[in-house]
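Escalated from tier 1: pyridoxal-5'-phosphate holo job.
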Amino acid sequence: MFEKVEDYPVDPIMIGADYFAQDPRTDKLNLTVGIYQDADGKTPVLKAVKLAEQRLIDTQTSKSYLALTGDPDYCRVLGAEIVGADNLGPFVAAQTAGGAVALRVMAELVAQMPDPPTVWLQTPTYGNYIPILTAAGVRFKSLPYYDPLKREILFDQLLDGLKQARPGDLFLMQGVCHNPTGADMSPAQFAALLDEMDTRGIIPWIDLAYLGFAQSWAADCDMARKIAARFPECIICITLSKSFGIYRDRAGALFVKTKPSDRARMQRAVSAIVRAGPSHAPDHGPSVVRTILGDTDLKTLWLSELNQMRQRVADVRRTIAETEIRDFGRDTLGYLAKQSGMFSILPLTADQEMALTREHGIHVVKGGRVNVARLADGDISHLIRAIHDVSSVG
Ligand SMILES: Cc1ncc(COP(=O)(O)O)c(C=O)c1O
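Tier 2 regenerated the structure:
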């Protein structure tokens, strides 16, 4: 019977790792990875995480199931950080196995509604949105967000495109450190976007994956706070994979703000969708997060480690921009220093991107996404030279 199974597309990030492994060159460089790496190319366990884990081992008394929507304490402590304790009341919350499951649960809920709304997406955007929405059966449409060759946000086109949305449609946007572009809206653009959504009755759906990697943990929660304070209905999906470096431990959450008359029904809907799909969330990662956020000393340690990760990424970005001007007398990559987070898109055509891998052994995600956190000091000149080389050819 399995001969009838169709050929599924392979995720471009996963296939990037395969291509890299097959490349026999010793001086190859893998910029496809989607995780933070330090200057030695390692993704270490944070000290605050190790301490919290030890505490959990010493004190955990049961491994029975949690509620379908997880541990209410985790949701409360995390929600207070993200939207503020005073704003939490109108939210239905669920602990999820990372952000991907929060997105999938919400997508299922949207698809199962009578007369389902359309979800509007930024282009380009996180590569797993379309597979998640498609698997759930959600109707979606894409709007322009960023032009990699011009290195700029297409804000007017985005706002213009949103005029096609109907009241009750959803706009799925990212918080800080936009993946894959690294290009975040300015505060003025974000304010204008919220005005537009408010006027048109479009419901914000914000996905937060890189809190703490742009300015600071507290400052990076600001977009979600503004949305939560202003809109009577909104959706917030969160992954803590990056901010706590606990990728495989799967900590995330879904927060949905509802009108009072819808809240109990929404709570039941979220529980039913969790039950039929991902079922109970894993406890370990979320318990680590809850332990750290609930302890002043651990939280201070974690924030300093998060700050170091943020600083490293910002330093690499600045070094690329400065090295290009100082050693190459050109300024084509200066935009990288103005963007934030681990990812940016190189300003290359598809042919130039292929030449970067073929001629120089530099592997990037299809579409030009690179992880700047993967670059050690010694890689930077090599990357700049290679980009110049393929740009002049293409
Ligand atoms: C924008 C965005 N949202 C959600 C996720 C999902 O993260 P996870 O499945 O690790 O929780 C990612 C992961 O890379 C992401 O970049």
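Residues 34, 98-100, 126, 174, 179, 207, 209, 239, 241, 247, 252 surround pyridoxal-5'-phosphate (CB under 6 Å).
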